[in-house]
Design brief:
Elements (H helix, E strand, L loop, with lengths): L1 E10 L4 E3 L1 E6 L2 E7 L9 E12 L1 E6 L1 E2 L2 E2 L5 H12 L3 E7 L5 H14 L8 E8 L21 H10 L4 E6 L6 H10 L3 E4 L6 H10 L3 E2 L15 H8 L5 E4 L7 H15 E4 L11 E5 L2 E6 L2 E4 L3 E2 L6 H12 L3 H6 L3 H7 L16 E4 L5 E6 L2 E3 L2
Parallel strand pairs: 1-5, 6-9, 9-10, 10-11, 11-12, 12-13, 14-15
Antiparallel strand pairs: 1-2, 1-3, 3-4, 5-20, 7-8, 16-17, 17-18, 18-19, 20-21, 21-22
């Protein structure tokens, strides 16, 4: 069956097409043209007047949503998460773990690996992001102290085997003993390494880069604060042009003025929007779980203990709108930070992050204000 999508604009990696015509067959984009170039081809036409077509978003840091946690590692949970994400413009994500006991972590990784071989609903889990247990006690955030581990090749290899090679990204504190060896091992396996939950000084952070790290986890949060005489990990993250860097743009984790500074430092090629969303996302205030942790949510703010942020209830469409407002950029510019850049960082930009012929038809339809009007995943209209 042929489907023809039309809209006001379409964002490509290097230009914007006015009055686009996107032809989709069997879930693939077969051609992209403009109405100025000719008439509509035959097929079922879906017209989105005034809308902009952008690549479906890719969230590389998300723990759950819709009342479900990825560490449940059940088909029901991932279907719930996938359906919820599709409603907010997300086409793919990395199922992100949180520090737990070794047995619990291995069990979740094993379950997730099996689920990723299945045809699940909505946004698809493209792999696993391991956030913990190789993180700093001083900057653990919501991670339970009892579950933190010093990085060792032996434990990392057990996690890799349990995940059946599905780990795509790992967060690690580079100052920990053994971190260099584990980073190097991860890079050898094709895993991207992100520096985060870290109290690292400048030299520790640079050593992590030299070992192979390519990104930073939720920049500013759970990081040693910047000091003009010892800039530490944050100074390195903002200064090094080759480093990608995540940011949680909900107005709670990072002040809007700091978002603007982040944009000036990292720019259009290295900034990445993430949600760090947990199971409470899309749900009413109340008590929820993040892995094995009890989290209370009030006015959309996720808290453990006295006032420690524990993930977020942010959705990616809202993150894009917020970033456009805070940094003073166009919606299509912000959308690239939620699609093209995470795909480039993970190394899947030949599959995700662009609307081009011969790719899967994963498209997010945005209004002029950046609201998601529809999500097209594998050629099927969803997320309405």
């Amino acid at each position: 069956m042929r489907t023809v999508i039309t809209a006001e604009k379409l964002l490509t990696p290097d230009k914007t097409i006015s009055q686009p015509i996107v032809v989709i067959e069997d879930g693939l984009i077969t051609s992209i043209s403009s109405r100025s170039q000719g008439t509509l081809p035959t097929g079922e036409v879906r017209d989105f007047p005034g809308a902009t077509l952008v690549p479906a978003y890719f969230d590389v840091h998300i723990h759950g949503s819709g009342g479900s946690d990825v560490m449940d590692a059940t088909e029901s949970s991932l279907n719930t998460i996938g359906d919820f994400l599709a409603q907010h413009g997300v086409g793919a994500y990395l199922a992100t773990t949180v520090s737990a006991s070794v047995d619990t972590t291995l069990r979740s990784l094993c379950g997730l690996a099996k689920l990723m071989k299945m045809e699940l609903q909505g946004a698809r889990p493209l792999g696993i992001h391991i956030e913990g247990p190789f993180i700093s006690h001083a900057k653990r955030g919501a991670h339970a102290e009892r579950d933190l581990q010093l990085p060792t090749a032996a434990l990392f290899n057990r996690m890799w085997e349990a995940a059946e090679g599905c780990i795509r990204l790992m967060t690690i504190a580079p100052e920990l003993p053994g971190a260099d060896e584990v980073i190097a091992r991860a890079v050898e396996l094709g895993i991207r390494v992100s520096l985060g939950h870290s109290n690292a000084g400048t030299e520790d952070a640079m050593r992590g880069l030299r070992a192979g790290a390519t990104s930073a986890t939720h920049t500013f949060n759970a990081m040693r604060r910047f000091d003009h005489r010892e800039p530490g990990i944050l100074g390195v993250v903002l200064d090094r042009e080759e480093l990608f860097a995540e940011i949680i743009c909900d107005g709670l984790h990072v002040h809007p003025t700091v978002v603007s500074l982040f944009w000036k430092a990292k720019g259009s090629d290295r900034a990445i929007l993430v949600t760090d969303a947990m199971s409470a996302t899309g749900m009413p205030d109340g008590n929820y779980r993040l892995g094995e942790l009890d989290v209370r949510v009030k006015n959309g703010k996720c808290i453990i203990g006295e006032d420690t942020l524990a993930g977020s209830t942010l959705t990616m469409d809202r993150a894009v709108r917020n970033f456009a407002e805070f940094a003073g950029v166009e919606i299509v510019t912000a959308a690239a930070l939620a699609s093209r850049n995470p795909a480039r960082m993970i190394g899947v930009d030949s599959q995700l992050g662009a609307i081009e012929a011969d790719r899967a038809a994963d498209i997010t339809v945005l209004s002029a204000k950046g609201d998601v009007q529809a999500t097209i995943l594998r050629g099927q209209l969803t997320g309405l």
